[in-house]
Write a structure and sequence with these properties.
The protein is mainly alpha-helical. The chain contains 9 helices and no strands.
């Protein structure tokens, strides 16, 4: 019985991901979840009491996977500079995913403060991924530098919203250049 419930919950989360990808936050409704999974609408309420509960569960399940993608991208790099670039680009790519954008919008609108704080804490955990690379580059306080770098990434994510692919690429290039060279405007070698 417990295994069946876990499979149903997983199917509902898969359906939620599909709906968010296809139609954004407006598409994530209980009738749509029920139709997508073949469950009765009342059955969906047995698993999730609200749309916010679906979003919170998606964050809990998906965030570690997204962090692992960023970490894998960094691990594939040979230099600290390349690791920083992978860290920034990885987050910007994930933030451009329609599911992620919809989850962010739903989180801001529908989650309570405790749930938003858990999501913020998970995002703060990303900072730990880049501390070592910043230390290798000689930063005196790599944790502070990582926190500030995350601020650059978050600003780039916000600025990227609604932009074309070419514009998002320019924003990523600028964020990487800012992280690697600061405000130095001399060309990189």
């Amino acid at each position: 019985m417990a295994e069946h419930r876990q499979l149903q919950r997983a199917a509902l989360l898969d359906a939620a991901r599909e709906l968010l990808t296809e139609g954004g936050m407006e598409a994530l409704t209980f009738p749509a979840l029920a139709a997508r999974t073949g469950l009765a609408r009342s059955s969906v309420y047995e698993y999730f009491r609200s749309r916010a509960a679906v979003v919170e569960q998606l964050c809990e399940v998906d965030f570690p996977l997204w962090a692992a993608e960023i970490e894998a991208g960094m691990a594939a790099c040979d230099s600290a500079n390349d690791q920083l670039a992978a860290y920034i680009r990885g987050q910007l790519v994930l933030a451009g995913d329609p599911r992620h954008r919809a989850i962010v919008a739903l989180s801001a609108a529908e989650l309570d403060e405790a749930a938003r704080n858990r999501i913020r804490a998970a995002h703060a955990g990303l900072v730990g991924l880049v501390v070592e690379a910043l230390g290798a580059l000689g930063h005196q306080d790599p944790r502070l530098a990582a926190t500030l770098l995350q601020g650059v990434v978050e600003s780039a994510v916000k600025y990227s919203e609604g932009r074309s692919a070419a514009e998002r690429e320019l924003i990523a290039d600028t964020a990487v250049a800012l992280a690697l060279r600061g405000l130095d405007t001399t060309p990189a070698n």
